[in-house]
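Hi F.,

I've been meaning to write this up properly since the lab meeting, where we talked about keeping a consistent format for the predictions we share between groups. The idea is simple: the sequence comes first, exactly as it goes in, then the structure tokens exactly as they come out, then a line or two of notes. No screenshots and no reformatting. I'm using this chain as the first example so we have something concrete to point to.
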Amino acid sequence: MKFGQVDHPEEVDFTLPSTSQETLTLLQHFKNKEPFEVYVGCAKWNKQDLKGFYPRGTKDELVYYANQFNSIELNATFYNSPSLEQVETWKKKTPADFKFFPKVPQSISHFSRLLNATDKVKLFTDAVVRFDEKLGMVFLQMHDNYSPKDMARLKLFLHDWPKDVPLALEVRNKDWFSKAEVTNELYSLLEETGVTNVLVDTAGRRDMLHMRLTTPVAFIRYVGANHASDYARLDNWIEVLKLWRDNGLQKLYFFIHQNVEIESPLLATHFIKKMNETFDLNLKYPNKATGNTLF
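Output, unedited:
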């Protein structure tokens, strides 16, 4: 994942911003209502990206991956809407507690730019609902050049989105975050439509780390810099999540990327161990039973 990559991560201030009062107020409506549901994973399962992660002789990468982690950010669906048969195949290969978080196809987000996409949305959602209980949340990632001038189009799209398919939104254009009135209009729209606001923690785009939740779900896409600071950055997230959980956070979906993806499982394992310790969870991670290192 090259988005937000910088040449000198040691020069970046990785301090996490303070949580907005609006986020805390929203969360407090849900305080003490449900157990804490946590899913942590990587973005890909293919051997080429995660070279060295799979034991020699691994016959099915998804089967192995799904027995190491409890979720996957399913970027494969960005390139092509999956068939019903493909979804059924993925579903059958994974344990009962595993969840998929499929990305809305680029034919909807980038090519159609949310216009005249009704048939494409139906094709996609009819497929991913076949994950049944293994569907976590769909996420819609807009192109960098999709700006607030298209707010009206975004409103129509989100209001028309099938309400039985949970959705998160990631906008990247800097104009969404440069003017308070625009940003607040976006957040109000997401709250109104029940859409989760995606947070992105990446070195080169600290403006996307807005710490503003619009549902009691935190959907966080963490991009490491292949730098020693990556682990400390994850540790800092634990403190923020403690605050959010204390105020009513219901669900955490946390996906870890790297510019060089081979290290993603290592970072994810580190983070899961911290989450288990802090929140008294029992999330699985690679080699949990043996205590061995990944590689």
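Notes:
The chain is about 35% helix and 15% strand.
The longest helix spans residues 229-247.

If this format works for you, I'll send the rest the same way.

G.
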